[in-house]
Design goal:
By secondary structure, the protein is mainly β. The protein is 0% helix and 48% strand. The chain is built from no helices and 11 strands. Strands 2, 4, 5, 6, 9, 10 and 11 form a 7-stranded mixed beta sheet that branches. The termini are far apart.
Length: 128
């Protein structure tokens, strides 16, 4: 098992940046990790980024590619998301998630249902 706690959310202006962190416990280094977000009024979580257990490969949604960077430090049981905020559309609750298995280029890492463990999320609000 792994427990996940996000931090770093807040209010940011479009054009600014924000760094989210996700502190893990348990067998953190054995899990592939992902970031998802849920915008106000939307029921479904949107895939943002994912990273393999050993940081070998990262994946991004088209909407954040080139603006967001996912990284992890297994020695510190920490997952990060560096965000260069461009638009109010980035306003969401951002959650980290852990998947007990491999992820690869097949694309299933974008599906929220494959992730077994979730943090409670951290709110990011973008002002124009």
């Amino acid at each position: 098992q792994v427990q996940l706690v996000e931090s770093g959310g807040g209010l940011v202006q479009a054009g600014g940046s924000l760094r989210l962190s996700c502190a893990g416990s348990g067998r953190f280094s054995a899990y592939a990790m992902g970031w998802f977000r849920q915008a106000p009024g939307k029921e479904e979580r949107e895939f943002v980024a994912a990273i393999t257990y050993n940081s070998d490969t990262t994946y991004y949604s088209d909407s954040v590619k080139g603006r967001f960077t996912i990284s992890r430090d297994n020695a510190k049981n920490t997952l990060c998301l560096q965000m260069n905020i461009e638009r109010p559309g980035d306003t969401s609750v951002y959650s980290c998630a852990a998947h007990e298995g491999y992820i690869d280029d097949s694309g299933y890492y974008t599906a929220a249902q494959i992730y077994e463990y979730w943090g409670k999320g951290t709110q990011v609000t973008v002002s124009s």
